[in-house]
Each structure stands twice: as C-alpha cells, then as structure tokens.
C-alpha cells in the first residue's frame, strides 16, 4: 500500500454521510414537506427514517452502508497502524483490548444502521426502532472504548497534542449524543414527534463530526509514511545485495552504479592512466 493515505477513509465516510442527510432533507423540502405514511397524524417534521422509507429508500440503504463500512475500516486501519508503529503504539494489553472492543462495538453499530435502513419504519416499525437503538448504542459504546484507550495512551504520550485533541472531541461526542438520545427518547414517549424529529436530525449531523475526528487520528501516520518508505527502499536494496549506504531511497543506489562504475571507469581508469602512476608511485614512497 505504498503512497496510500488512510485519512481518506474517515473523510470519505463523513462526506457520504453528510451528502446523504442533505439529499434526504432537501428532497423532502423541495417536494413541499409531504406527510409520509409512516408519520404520525400530528407530526409535521419528517424523521430521517420517514424519508428513507419512501422513494429514497435505495439511497438510504446504499449511502448508509457505505458510510458505516468505510468508518469501520477506519477503526481497523487505526488499530493496524498502531500495531505497525506508524501511530502511537499501545503500551498494555488493556489498551489492545479496548481497541478491539471499540471495533466490535462499531461493527454492531454498523449492522444496526444497515438493518434499520432495510427494515424501514413504515413496514417494520418495531424492528426498525430496535436496530436504531443498536446503531446509536453501538457507536456511543465504541466511542467510550476509544476514549478509554486514548486516555491511557495519553499518559505515555503527553507531548502529542493531536492525541489529546482527538480524545476531547470523542468525549464531547459521547456526552452530547447521550444527552440528545435521552431527550429524543423522552420526546417520543411523550408523543412530541416534531421535537423528536429535530433531535434526530441534530444527532445525525453531529455524527458527521465524530467521523471526521478520525481524520485527526491518522495525521501522525503521514509523518511516519516517508520513514517507512525509506526503510522499505533500504531493505530492498540490501536484499538485492547492495550496501546499505547505496540504498537510501534517493537514487543514490543508482548513482552508486553510475558514479562508481561509469565515472569509476572514466576517472579510475582513464584518469588513472594519466594520474594513477603518479599517485601510485607516491603512495609507495609513503
């Protein structure tokens, strides 16, 4: 994966998620804010799921799936880069366990979103609500495990501000989303569907910024990318039988042949014919 940038994954996932939300909201507004069959009689503001249960269901399924699959790949790549040492490596088995638990919770959250888009609120109301809970709960739990891991990493890498910034962003996401999710549930139970719909849109939009926070996590990998490429070049040069000093990845190996052989022939032999005897004779005298 030479030249590959892992920060593309969270950035792409965030763009797809935001584009999906905007497409659904703008479609509903442009269509004149229609009252869908899945909406309550007193409801005026559509849930994301109400719009996704209508003609935009294929878009809801496709873009929702792309978002969570790409995001979960970000979790996996982040773990892999820590293992390779391109990100701040974990320092204990507890940190490794927290990282794995974060990935598993994210996979559960991804499954919840994909299933709630398939089992829409119009035809499968109860199942849809259950999968919605799995989606929200899965990613909040994943964020909790990630924060716990980063908090422990912070003890060993206090000088790295990006790690600290990522921790605080994810912690803020947990606190805000939990508060909004509780308010959303209360509004639904009290049949305040318009307020609940507004809260759902806010929760979904904030999720965009949570996805983007993983872009910050991959920034240190950009700094180690050059060093890894350099080390790989040296390793390949050594494997080909070249001395380490001729395999620094900057064309020195090639110039080594050019200067060492070509110029060597020119200066070592041609010039040697003219000057070699003089220096050779002098060398013997010393």
Automatic annotation (TrEMBL):
Primary localization class, coarse: membrane
GO cellular component, one term: plasma membrane
CWH43-like N-terminal domain sequence ranges: 6-219
InterPro entries: CWH43_N, DRAM/TMEM150_Autophagy_Mod
Membrane topology: Multi-pass membrane protein
Region: Disordered, residue numbers: 252-286
Keywords, alphabetical: Membrane, Transmembrane, Transmembrane helix
Composition skew (Polar residues), residue ranges: 256-265
Keyword rRNA processing included in the entry's annotation: no
Segments crossing the lipid bilayer: 7-30, 59-77, 98-119, 131-150, 162-186, 198-220
Matching Pfam families: Frag1
Subcellular location: Endomembrane system
Name under which the protein is recorded: CWH43-like N-terminal domain-containing protein
Source species of the chain: Patellaria atrata CBS 101060
């Amino acid at each position: 994966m030479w030249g590959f940038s892992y920060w593309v994954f969270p950035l792409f996932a965030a763009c797809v998620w935001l584009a999906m939300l905007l497409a659904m909201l703008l479609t509903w507004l442009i269509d004149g804010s229609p009252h869908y069959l899945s909406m309550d009689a007193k409801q005026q503001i559509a849930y994301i799921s109400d719009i996704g249960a209508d003609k935009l269901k294929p878009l809801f399924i496709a873009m929702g799936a792309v978002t969570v699959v790409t995001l979960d790949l970000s979790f996996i790549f982040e773990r892999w880069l820590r293992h390779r040492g391109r990100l701040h490596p974990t320092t204990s088995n507890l940190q490794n366990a927290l990282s794995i638990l974060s990935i598993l919770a994210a996979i559960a959250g991804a499954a919840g979103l994909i299933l709630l888009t398939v089992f829409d609120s119009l035809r499968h109301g109860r199942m849809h609500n259950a999968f919605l809970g799995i989606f929200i709960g899965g990613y909040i739990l994943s964020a909790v495990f990630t924060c716990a891991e980063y908090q422990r990493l912070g003890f060993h890498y206090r000088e790295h501000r990006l790690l600290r910034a990522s921790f605080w962003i994810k912690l803020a996401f947990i606190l805000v989303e939990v508060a909004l999710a509780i308010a959303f549930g209360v509004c639904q139970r009290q049949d305040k569907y318009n307020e609940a719909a507004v809260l759902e849109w806010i929760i979904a939009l904030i999720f965009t910024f949570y996805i983007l926070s993983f872009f910050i996590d991959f920034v240190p990998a950009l700094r180690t990318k050059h060093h890894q490429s350099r080390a790989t070049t040296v390793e390949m040069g050594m494997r080909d039988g070249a001395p380490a000093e001729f395999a620094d990845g900057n064309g020195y190996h090639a110039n080594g042949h050019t200067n060492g052989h070509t110029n060597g022939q020119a200066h070592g032999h041609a010039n040697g014919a003219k000057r070699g005897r003089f220096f050779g004779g002098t060398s013997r005298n010393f």
